[in-house]
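Note to self: user wants both folds in one dump. Writing first protein now.
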Amino acid sequence: MDASLSGGGGGLGKAFTVSDADVADPSLIKQKQLAAEREFLSAESERNVISREGSLLLEDDIQFNVAPPAASIDGTTTSKSSSWSLDAASSESLQGITFEGHDLADLLAELEDDAPPAHAAAESAESAAVIMDDTLPRFDDDDAASDIPSSAGMGNVDDDAEEEAAAEAEAAKQARLLRAQLLRLRDAMFRDDPHFTKRSLSQLNTEAVQYQKAGDDLAAICSYAKLFHKAKAGNLTHPELHVTHYNRAGCYLSLGLYEEALFDAQRCATLAETRMRTNPMGAAAIWIKSFARKGYALNGLKRYREANIAFSEGLKADPFNDEMKRGLEESSRGVLRDLLRGRGLEMRALPSTESFNTSERITYHGYATPLHKIRHDDMLPAQLLTPFQADNDHHIKDTYNYLTVQTDIRMPRRYFSYLQDEYRQRRVCEAIQMAVRYQEEELDRDARVLNVAAGPGLHAMAALDAGARHVTCVERWLYLAMSCKEVLLTNGYTDDQVKVVYKRPTDIALLRDVPVYTNVIVAVDLLDEGLLTSGLLPAVTHALDNLAIQDPVVIPSSVTVFAQAVQIKTPECCGFDVSAVDRHRWHPSYACGVPLNTDYIVPLSEPIEAWNFDLLTPPRESERKTVDIPFTRPGVWNAVLFWYDLNLFQDKVRLSSGLVDGREVSPTLRPAVQYLAGEIRVTADRGYEADGSGRAITTMPLLCTHNTVRMRFDVERAEYMHLNRADASFPNYHFHALADTRRNEAYYRAIERAVARRKAMKPTPETSGFSPLTSGEESEVHVLDAGCGTGLLGMMAARCGADSVVGIELHESLAAVARRNVAANGLGDKVSICVRDLALAERGKEVRRRGANLVVMDFFDATLIGHQALYMVETMQRNVVQPDATYVPMAATMYVMGIEAVTDRINGKQFASFNKYRWDRDAEAVYLKDVPHRKLTKPKKVFEFFFDRRGSMRGGSMREAVLKLEVIRSGYMNGIVFWFDLHLDEESSLTTAPPGIGVGGVVFRADAGGAADKDAPMTAPAAPRDEDGVAVDEGRFLASCDARTRRRIAEAAVVSTSGDDGANHGFVPALAFGGAREGLVFRLGGYGLGYYTDVPWSVRAEARSKLIHEALGVAASKRGDDKPAADSTTSAAPPQPTAPLSAEVADVDEEHYYGQALQYLERAASVTAGKKITVLARRENNKVRFSLKEGVGTWVGKSPWRIEWGGGASIESPHYQRVHYCELLVRDFLMRLRCKRFPPIEKDMKMMLAHAGSLFLDPAVLAEVYHEFVCLELVHGTPEFSPGASLEAMTRSCLMYC
């Protein structure tokens, strides 16, 4: 007996024959195997399928497993016969047999006239395959036509759509004819070979494979039918039957029979997955390839979304599979085509409303309710949790206690911004004073105030100063209550005047906590972006029912909620489509805690009133209603922007969280954004009608619901372009990074230059440098996108001409976004995305064996190295990067500046004791312009980091530095702000410096930390004025100019430093700062990075002002003297983002998404202008810390939980123990995570989020902790990860919500 075998290692093999004599001598088998391998290597075969006795495998999935010669794989000997005969219907004439409702004889006659011959099958199906069972599925005419999209509801169908519909109808007709031909051929083959059941499964497979190799897909399918018929009739199986399904799938795809191909692909995946339990190495390859078969079958059926998912799943397992990358691009294009024609939209059903009527009274769960069985999919429960239940139920008490402690220690820092919010505090204090006077003067009674969420006590002191008899301060958070008591005592208020109670607002009792009924209730600080999610209504309701007289004054007295349909999308970035990231626009809480970038919010409708709450009679029931959204412009509706207007007191004092002229007015009261379930396209073919003004108008119903502790907005029965993915682990700072246009453009230019240099240079074996290529030659460029994120930098490299790009990303959702972005831009042939810890990447797996020769990376935070950047670079150099590789960026320089950041007096009250909550051992990312401060010293360089191996030998490993900072202002230096310059290459750098400071620490403005010249005055020159003599704000004027005018003004300083004629006078190019040079200043100017003539700042400012005057004259002439200026009160659309200034020469205030790092000193000191102060800088692993010289300065106050010992020399502080308890809870959580027997933490977090208002949790802190824990689950759920996969890197704070 002969058996068909194949040879080869990990690649394609060559079939050869093994006789019975060979089986007895294994050495002969080995010789034939080697000979077959040599023969195959010299051949060019693209589509080979093989068979052998004992195994059914593809040629590129070889395993040597020779079956005994005496028996076949089904357990029967080859000499043993088995009876089998055709069915009666198979042997009879075809007359009278119907197929899909048609007479088979008529179909065959039509086939002979129209259909191509059997051997003229479609082109090779190398990229897809599926198999079917013995009995072919039946398809009715209606089913066959159901895949053709209907033109109904699409408006006017263009010619392309009509041609496509006609082609699909023709394809459906040909598919019916092919199925009929398959039936006829199958019956003929069964009739010609009536004893085929006597052969083994391997022999039948060999016959089918031979037909398939010959390109006869029809005969191959019929031969596979013999195999499956024998297996079914004899109840036989085979461990590698999935391979036969995979092979037959290719035949179906070649013939265009996509329904059968899809069936076989799914069957192949199921069998292969089962097989992997016993033989993971052998079946894994086929299981991965089955996704390609499934994807191409779905593409053929025009089910592009499902195909996209199939290819994405396959690329997770094999990111380098070109076949699936091509399929992903094809399916992505198909989705876009469908969306453009109004097809392929997705539907999402809302949660059941049976238990949520139009109005339902809110109740609380019973004490014995099993909380682990409660589900909150709709996030608007009608039964709420009580704090007692959360404290005592063993399923959630650890989560609740952790959230409580974390909010305790995070809230004080947030109140620094509350205290500095003059817009908010001025109006609230005014309303309190008016309410107190109203009680005393008009009602003739003492004002007794209940201040709910008192914070540090500012509002309580305002009430006492206005004449209140007594104030009860209720604070839910421990350290805010402690600071409130301390601040009140510091400012001279006694216990007879004020009482501070540390309790939840609903736990307050009369007499025990509140000495007498109150007549003024202040609850302004219970407000957040979502209005209700901090517990405003439960707190006010409890106070009105139990603690107040009849008809008290409530501040605020009423609230009106407005909603507006908006579009928030990520635009094209440097010409790349990165819209795949928009499918992850979701946030668990309305309170994101950071400002909104309103430049990316496009209003699609006028605001409408959603709710109005009278807090004298707060709602006690859930409510739902539908309002019509009137659209005023087309776009993609994916979010609802809502805000509220507060009537603080009798319509005399109002406060709003909305936008004024498209910008936020209060830094602590912001509008909230709720993303819809997906994206809804609002276009002209969706029912627009023109009104009298010529605007396009349409309306859609918006469902508004609330349950007294949370609001929500939904669209019922909507068709979505894409459904969003609610992934709490997704790092939202990537939206801000994509919006950082200047950073992206600088990277793009640097990558383009780096690729061009690598193409023109090649390494030589004698040196580590490069030598030019000869004319016509071009070196290969293989790029590693380290920590690729959304894949932007890798796509830049591919478009610039790189031969291959590998992006490595640990976060699975980010990697999926990167793959979709790559497919959308048609770069799948060059770019591959791997889900892997970058530090564990290996050559030959994630990166080619020779390693990458160009590295692009951006895993830097505000501190530059806080995300293990140096560790990652060193690990890459050891594992996957060539020694002479090019890096973008190639180096970085860190700068520091001393500042004073203290809160002294607010509204004339002393708050110095509150400053102890500022200090932290680690630096925080901030925008310095948002932190009230005074700059005290000039910038100073600290460290230089060189990322290439050659540069790292020039001081990049320095760990300590002693700095002499030159003091320019006298003050109290308690903080160090530091930033960095990223040197992308020799020609370009970008800086994260605060506004007014450029590359190299050069000061452009006097208020940015000293003058550029020691003789320059610290005051700015007179501001330019317009033709009417009115002073012009330079920053606002530049923002209103076009890009060309702004660039001319920005280049004024460069011209001044280059000589009168603008020639290259006094310029010395330099890659890095090499020390001070007399008369020169190191900066990035018009000629690149280097030393320029140090012209006094006043001269540059004068040239800048001159050009602004000229630009003002041009603007006036264009406007015309007789044309009145636009009315500033007229409503207009939000301003669009203006073009950035030239990165090389601009003195701009636009900042990068990194922000600056601010570290508060452990010892602070008073400094005097004109002197110097010594600062010590130390790099500890991935942290940079600063301190004053030993013995200088005084110790600053610290938060209670930062003090380890207290109450005696040997007694640990209870505040420290509370925080340490949180660390123990995290360790316990990680231990439970490894055993995989507990539900994910997301279940508990969703419960906390749904009941945040009734539990009085802070939604912003809850969202932060939620994100941190799901990221912990993600990292620790991976099979292996390195120290570089830190929680800080994945939970990086976002400084602006874009």
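First done. Writing the second protein, which came from a different request thread.
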Amino acid sequence: MLNHLVHDQFTNHQYEALENADRHEYSVRSENSIFFEVDGPYRAMVLPASKEEDKLLKKRYAVFNDDGTLAELKGFEVKRRGELKLIKIFQSQIFRVFLEGTSLESCYAAVARVADQWLDILFSRARGLPDAELFELITENRSMSKALESYVGMKSTSLCTARRLAEFLGDAMVKDKGLACKFVISRQPQDLPVSERAIPVAIFSAEPAVRRQFLRRWLRDPSLETADIRDILDWGYYLERFGSVIQKLITIPAAMQGVTNPVPRIRHPDWLAKRVSTAANSHRQRHITDAFRKVSREEYLQKAAEEDARLQEAQRDIEDIGAPGGTSALARPRSGVCRRGGKRVAIGPMSVESAAARIAELGPAPDPSEAYGEWLAHAKQMWKLKRQLRALRLEAGVEEPADGTGLGQFFARTHESLARGTWQVLQWAETDVAGELKAWVRVGGQLHSVRVAVPRTLYVASTVPVPEMARSAYFTEARSMILPRAAMAQQSSHLYRCEMPEVEYVSHRSRWSSFFAHPSIGGVYETHVTPVDRALIRLGATAALGTAARRRGGDAMALGDLESRTASTPWEANELTYALLYQTAASDGRQFFALAEPGSERGFVWVVSPGRAAQLQLPNLERLYRESLAAAKSGEALDGGAFVYPEQVQFVAKAFSTAQAAARAVGAQLARMAEERRGTMVLVCHSAQPARRLQALIPAIGSFPTVSMPSHHADRALPALDWQRHASRRMVASLLGCAQWLSERVALAQYADIPLGNIPADAPLFLADVFFARRLARANHVLWWSPAARPDLGGRQDDESCEPPATAVPEVNLPGSYGAACAELELRGLPIATVLKAPLVNELEGAMGVFGFDGATIDDDDGTGAVAAAAGTADAPGRLQLLSTADGGVPAATLQLLRTLLRGWWQEAERENPFATMMTDHFYRWLTRPAARLFDPALAGLVQALMRKVFMQLTAELRRLGMRVVHANLDRIVVATGKATLPAAHASIAYVARAVCERPLFEHLTLVPQQFWSFLLWMDASNYGGIATQAPDEPPTDSKMPDNGDSSAASEPRIEMLWSMKEYLPPVVQSRFELTVAEFIYKLAAFHSQLHSRAPHAARGPGAATAIEDVHSDNEPPDADSLVATKGAFYRRLIGQHFTRKLLAALPEIREACGPTNRSADARFPQLPGSQLFRDRRANPALEFVKYIATVFGLDVPATNFVRIMRRNLLALLEVGEFAPEAEFANPCERLVLSRVVCDFCNYCRDMDFCRDADLLPVLQEDGTVAGPSEWLCLGCGCAYDRLRIEERLVEQLHAAILAYQSQDLICGKCRLMKQDNFSLQCTSCAGAYKATIDPDAIRAQVSVYLDVAVLNRLTMLQELAQWSQGHSSVSA
């Protein structure tokens, strides 16, 4: 037949031959030289398959005759010389078995039996097979066409065998070409490729000692004792080669023919397994080719011509149009819709019922293969009626019936649920398209990904009307909007709202920038609000499609089509399924990936070991999980989680040498998981890397809504040894903590109305930003939202400082000794009380108008935020007054909105809402943290100024109630109660705390007793000591107190000391200083106790000094003389005799121990941040010891005269004058405080003093030098801080100090007036010389402290800035 067709269509009829040369006559003939050879008939043909997807193997087949003999065999390994004999024998046996069986299943079952026989040999490691036969089956035989020396620099199994034969037999055996290399592949060394693991077979014929020697060398295993071939072979290599043949001949062809895998031990390739599972899944997503088929061009043109002919025959004359019985639109009765009572009601025949009836009247559609034109006309009418019916149902609010089946009905139901249901948004995610977000929406228990277009919204302020804006479709006038600064509103009289597609803004950014740079433009606001931020502020986590958008229909959705809704019933965290993706990495490239799916009881682990062989050293993960789960259940740590943990999880582990290969494997598994659980899975990512970087490494993460789980510092550090075991334990711990964390995160997301996947690690800061931004937007305020440290002020933010206005830190310190009971109180809620009671602050001080409250009456009871004018018209809308700060005016309405927000949190916190309590705890940190999106230094400075006033009012109130304020700052207050006994002091403190909180100004404050002292020697917050004890009728409340299980021991008095200045003495002197001061405190406390028993009403505290000096006062009690005499005798014995003699004897010992001959580290001053003693070579340890002791003893005022005499005698022994400059005490402990540092893991907030906090000081070696920086750990959870972020904040702090010095004002040294011009050299009023308000020596000392901290802690950026500042200051000096 082929020959006939080819002869008919491809014969050449143009061949001509010359017949007569004279007459030029030619004869024409036809020729066709194409002929086909017909083989067969045959009984069967076997074709192998390729392991790659959608590829075919050429020139490989096996053909069988009818009698079962093999007619032809081509391309198989039976004829290949270098192939394993195992594979050759298997193929020789298997071909004739293909003819067995009566069906495909029986045929492949017969073939599988042969394969299973050989697989049993490999899986059992050939235990019942003789060694000679095993060598014959697995030995590879290769011949080298050239001499060994010709293959320099190349690698292969043959070359490896030849080199090892040369080691074994000598170089003469391998010098010629044509060497036959017979070898097997060994399992070791595991870090080498196959080409370097070839073992010559000849070595197994050598003597045992020689064989063992060379095998140890080649296998790199000195402990090798046995030479059994079965322990040496790489069985995985041979299984892979043999399995590849089985896949090509049996499993892949069987799967393509719809037969279940006949050899289950040999797995399908990934692409084939996915294709088989898709074909077997009844709920799989169908392809468009399942519903439509592709037609040829000729068939399409033929059907189109038939349709045109049918339509032409159906045309009628113009007189027949509209006649009864016609088919035109004019002949059909018209239907319409009118409005009755605000509702659209169908009239005429087109109601919901009539439309459904007309659809039923159309009947079944004709067969398109027989009458395509009639089928098309029927389908068009059906589509039109269904479209009208859907519109009528939307108008009437009738649900679309869901009884249909098929792909179309599935899409229809999905669209209907999205159009009518309430969206529970799990995440707003960015896409590759600018301005387009992917919303992961939960509707009706299913997850959907919806594309939402978010426009770019800007606010443009102008000093004059701009005609271009008035004519543009992008701009509208925004008269009611309030700018972040009231002064800006006065300067810019015209404000426009600009809304454009994000693509337009991004593609023409330069053009828009040039337009906004026009001199008439006063500022452009909200340029840093991203599409995700806009969606969170406007919609949040609950939304629904608007009525207009539902009526319009279509697939394209914009942010304006959605409306914010309030969730009627909160959804539970256990309504979704979750998977945990765990990732940790080391700096040397080692990485650990894990993917755990508790719902399926399975897990996957991928290990990356670069630069070495990909090997697994994991523990038994199944047992580790079971043991950890049992321990967690015993501690009841798994109650109330988002999912239930299975009793066991099966883990599959793989090793890779590159991170890219491991990432591809993770992505492939995520893709398979997405196919299996489409629309129900939430992926929890636990990684130290940012989410964007992790998704760039593994793009398949974008197929799920993701939630970022914070990582502990133990998850970010991998030890050098046994690191896989450490990472496995951390992974299991993360998995067991995931459910509880998810449950809390879901509750937090529902409280804040923020999608679960959009809550960052520092949740309180971001939630406060979103809460405040929503209130500002509802009150028509323009946002100053900015991710940088400066707020977005329309381009004028560079004119303001990024730090809050410089206000003195409120702190009270009264050094001295206090013989009466003292108490430490923790001050809580000062920022909250300040903001909530802001209108009362100026009223109590009598300073109205300082902050703008004179022109506005701010309601303090409700949260309406009403601001009304107070000058005669209290009901009239008041103008916004300026709240004066150092940097500019903040509208009063902004502070009122802040008060309203804070009041809402406080009221919820009183109802024991844990999330509202969290927000109030982090309120002040959010207000003053430059990392906050709505950070405003002017607003923060305003609140800090008000806090200073409230703080001063509080200290005054404590003094009025009889307390003596020893030390006070924004966090704690130390007071002297004046009570002699602890029970009386405790009762007094309870009364004072209650009385203070009853005042209206302090009703939101809380004073919590933390510590009590029966005697206190106080210098400052870093240097004090005393007899500390707990109240006898209260349990211990201070976390610093010992807790050894004995409550009685906790209430025992004890000496507690904190002298930071002793750390700057040599170590041999520190212990002597501590013992001396402790003895002094103990003897003073004992004396005051005896004194109280004799004179219970004697004066105590610093005022007690007058009892010794005022001997002849008329107001003294009758026994005053005896009391003064007793005190004088006590101090004379204690200081004049005991301590003076003791210290005079100790000074020579100190001078000898710290002399120049002793060069040990204990005899030198330690190298600490801010210490000048380490650099001063003239510093004398004995002299410093005397100054320290005298200063501490001098804190007790009654002992001043005795301490002065003791100091003079000690200095005389050191040959130093009493009034010499070197004898003056200077506190060596400088301060460098970084305030409000927050842990990313537990949100614990603290102030870090890099010069005084012991946990922040560098680690010292035995010789006293710095060994390296200490690890900065959180005091709350032990997690390591981000050193880079802390260094950046220190750089900003130093830069702000240098900027403040450079931009300071000059004042006159005589009259203190400020310099008004730039050219005068002397004061214009008194001719005095100008001087700086900031002392240059002070700023140099401050820079020096920064430099010390940077050098000792290896902060390179801070060190460069400090060195640059020192160099320029020396030049300017």
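Dump finished. Worth passing along: The mean pLDDT is 79.
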